[in-house]
Here is the input.
Amino acid sequence: MNPLFWLNAQARDGIVSGAALAVAVERFGLSWAEAELLALENGLLPARYQRNQKMLSTAEQLRLARSRVAVIGCGGLGGYVLEELARLGVGHLVAVDPDVFEEHNLNRQLLATPALLGTAKVEAAVARLGVVNPAVTVLPAPEAFSVANGAVLLAGCALAVDALDSIPVRLELAAVCAGLEIPLVHGAIAGWYGQVTTQFPGDTTLADSYTRSGTGIEKELGNPSFTPALVASLEAAEVCKVLLGRGTPLRRRTLVIDLLEMEFVERLD
Here is the structure.
């Protein structure tokens, strides 16, 4: 019996359970990624994505599984972005961050726990996402992003996600994405406030929005638990739309968020 025959025999109404995939992994020596791809390529939807089904087709789920996305920064924004993309089913994630967890990260960073203080953020991302969705390949890059290594870190990626807290590095990321001709989904947070936009090749949204100063105003205004969760979710939605060519991305416009007054304003760029 081959693995596809097994999966077809176990499927019900085009959906194959995680238990059946686990048997395929064990019996036929497949990785979880290979087992899920085999199912999706043959029109079978892994049950873990069942609740995606009303908004995403099986073909679109396959496209996500074949996609590669880089998340630059694995802290407040990046931890949430990584987890949401993994749960969505984006098959290849590059996690870039040179830092380790410190105690002040515990109030808002999804990947941070007291037991992981001193642990590299990218190592925590690999461990966490391996439990959340073993079919997702996470490539850790425990280094600071720069124009010198940017093209290597983003090689093969369909797009990049900005989860940084440094304006100069953010602008370097935008420049590297422009050179590689890939979109950049940008998010920024500070206290009650945040913003999201998506820059496509040829656009200059970020360069027009920022001057080359140090960190943003996050260190002045702080960050609670909910601001990064919200902004990261909006970034994940933008990633999904761009990868699938669906909907209207935030191109040449920035969604500015004020959670204190509960106002969402669109700024045209």
Notes: The domain at 67-268 is CATH 3.40.50.720 (Rossmann fold). The beta strands are 15-16, 45-46, 68-72, 92-96, 137-141, 159-162, 184-190, 193-199, 253-258, 263-268.
